[in-house]
Amino acid sequence: MDLAVELGNGVSRAFEALTLAFIL
């Protein structure tokens, strides 16, 4: 388990969620 990969996935998902919320 790579902490960097987990952190990257978390940031990516959070950014995607924020983008979707901003668009909607």
Description:
With 24 residues, the protein is an all-alpha fold. The protein is built from 1 helix and no strands.
Count, helices: 1
Distance between the termini: 34 Å
Q: Roughly how many Å is the radius of gyration?
A: 11 Å
- Overall geometric form: rod-shaped
Structural class: mainly alpha
Average pLDDT level: 93
Number of separate strands = 0
The major β-sheet equals: none
Question: What portion of residues is helical?
Answer: over 70%
Beta content comes to under 5%
Write out key terms for the chains shown:
mainly alpha, 24 residues, rod-shaped
Q: What is the element layout, followed by pairings?
A:
Blueprint: H1 3-23
In short:
The protein has 24 residues and is mostly helical. It has one helix at 3-23. The radius of gyration is 11 Å and the shape is rod-shaped.
